[in-house]
Fold this sequence. Notes:
The strands form two sheets. This protein has a six-stranded mixed beta sheet, sandwiched between helices. The chain has a four-stranded antiparallel beta sheet with strand order 2-1-4-5, with helices on one face. Helices cover 32% and strands 29% of the residues. Strand 4 (63-68) and strand 5 form a beta hairpin. It has one domain (4-99, 148-222): 3-Layer(aba) Sandwich (Rossmann fold). The chain is of the alpha/beta class. Adenosine-5'-diphosphate binds at residues 15, 17, 22, 24, 42, 44-50.
Amino acid sequence: MAEVLARLEQAKKVYQTGDTRIVALDHTSMEVRSHELVLLEGPSGSGKTTLLSLLGCVIYPTEGKVMVRSTYTTGLTDRQLSRLRLQHIGFVFQNFNLIAPFTALDNVAFPLRLMGKSGRQARREALQQLEKLGMADRRFNRPRELSGGQKQRVAIARALVTNPGILLCDEPTASLDHGSLEKVMEELKMLSQEGKAVVVVTHDPRLESYADRVVSMEDGRVVNT
Ligand SMILES: Nc1ncnc2c1ncn2[C@@H]1O[C@H](COP(=O)(O)OP(=O)(O)O)[C@@H](O)[C@H]1O
Ligand SMILES: [Mg+2]
């Protein structure tokens, strides 16, 4: 049974840099549901990362509302917003955002530490998650000692280790060869079938075969749903 896990209601995001004002996302409404894999497509600069960051509670909207698991983010403090993100959202950033001085294991354990788990428990669970992604043997390597594909698997492990209902991935397949791409997409598909809402940003039309729904963006707007 599909359930709405996150929703944008007429959300708008404006960036002001000096005297330039950029509408990165114009009034946009969309929702993501459990058990679905949504593909978010569109040219570079069309607002895909902005939309994903709003859904993922990484940024606040300039106007409109964002709802995650029946909580509106408007009016939440930074601390409350982080809490909501930690509980419900897994985010795989376009550039992975791994913490450079940390090992793969400690990167994956980090959200669990933020949740208040002991170092020992956090590392135990992080190792299990790395094992699932076939990365246990690289657990003591730091990000700069890993390939693009390996960094990506660590980033996915870190997003999944808290078992979030919503998984948001910003161009996760960009640095992958075709074989690894299929493997990653199969895994993401499986997670959606198990009940998560999975959103994948991509440029790659080959990924459409994995999608339950394709959302296209142009110039800060969703042009279909
Ligand atoms: N932090 C920021 N400050 C200023 N402009 C930004 C910022 N982030 C994104 N933008 C601008 O907003 C628009 C949409 O960006 P983005 O959401 O990153 O698009 P996409 O992910 O589709 O390439 C672009 O014009 C981009 O330059
Ligand atoms: Mg982007």
